[in-house]
Design a protein that fits this description.
4-stranded antiparallel β-sheet; 301 residues; alpha/beta; Rossmann fold; 31% strand; elongated; 6-stranded mixed β-sheet; Alpha-Beta Plaits
Length: 301
């Protein structure tokens, strides 16, 4: 189907301060891609380069096969963007924003009424009267109402209650099912794990991983619970590199977390003992994410 989003050695510096450096990634058409990283990691800089809001220091980005430039209005018309920090005209109503954005695009907004209804948004109220959650609803409406081919969503459910969060991802899922591509930046890792097929993790301006969500979780981190047939043997799990958080539970059970290929060493070590039970589970994406930003930071230090 071809790539919808491409970054090739994308680099952006703000004077001496680094935004992103040498970011290379590809998002294929119809893919749901999660872009993860803490504040200041470079997520927003990357998104602004994709939208033509920033000119990269070096490298380039392409959307729908076209090189992104600062004057790519026609290209941006095919994108639905919801910013992480929503800025609206405080004295105007929601209806004014919907009409204004539609006229700027020079295109109809076929899904505006549907989105208003499903998000239970009152377009007659002025922005200054709205809560944070209702401002976020308005941003979602104007970002999605033209049925874009590419959804670039930066923390799209910020300020929304759980029911509205669920509605947002139902709406996004329906659009992806109809062929749209999703580029989702979020700190709500459980949502990324549920919604996205692939994920990129950015740390200190560098892309440190880009993989299928299932492969990333399976490869890097597992939770282990071992129940021995008798009292836990002394030193049973000592000296296994990559094994952390070893915690006894009663006299016969140990739990631990294991990274990378150390699972093979663990299983061979356990084979020397009589076991009553053994559970090995893939860790959640949130735990994998913490490993990249806690463990790797300690290694760097």
């Amino acid at each position: 189907m071809g790539a919808v989003v491409e970054c090739s050695a994308l680099t952006k510096f703000y004077g001496r301060n680094r935004g992103v450096e040498d970011v290379t990634l590809v998002v294929e058409a119809g893919t749901t891609f999660g872009f993860l990283g803490p504040n200041g990691a470079g997520k927003t800089t990357t998104i602004r380069c994709l939208l033509g809001m920033l000119k990269p220091t070096s490298g380039e980005s392409r959307v729908f096969g076209e090189r992104v430039t600062l004057d790519g209005a026609a290209l941006r018309g095919r994108i639905g963007y919801v910013a992480g920090d929503v800025r609206l005209f405080e004295r105007e109503t929601g209806a004014w924003h919907i009409d204004y954005i539609a006229r700027l695009r020079g295109a109809p907004a076929p899904s505006a009424t549907e989105l208003i209804d499903r998000l239970e948004f009152d377009p007659s109220r002025k922005v200054r009267e709205l809560s944070k959650g209702n401002k976020q609803k308005l941003a979602l409406i104007v970002g999605l109402m033209h049925d874009p081919e590419l959804l670039i969503l930066d923390e799209p459910t910020s300020g929304l209650d759980p029911l509205n969060q669920e509605t947002v991802f139902e709406i996004v899922g329906e659009r992806v099912a109809r062929g749209a591509t999703l580029f989702l930046s979020s700190h709500i890792l459980s949502e990324v794990e549920r919604v996205c097929e692939r994920v990129g993790i950015v740390r200190a301006g560098h892309l440190v991983a880009e993989e299928d969500v299932s492969d990333l979780i399976a490869k890097h981190l597992r939770d282990v619970s071992v129940t021995f047939a008798g009292p836990v043997p002394a030193g049973a799990l000592d000296g296994i590199e990559g094994l952390t958080d070893v915690t006894p539970s009663g006299d016969v059970t140990l739990s631990a977390r294991i990274r990378g290929d150390a699972i093979d060493t663990l299983v061979k070590r356990l084979a020397a003992h009589e076991l009553a039970d053994l559970t090995i589970a893939h860790a959640k994406l949130e735990d994998v994410f913490r490993e990249y930003y806690v463990h790797e930071a300690e290694v760097d230090a």
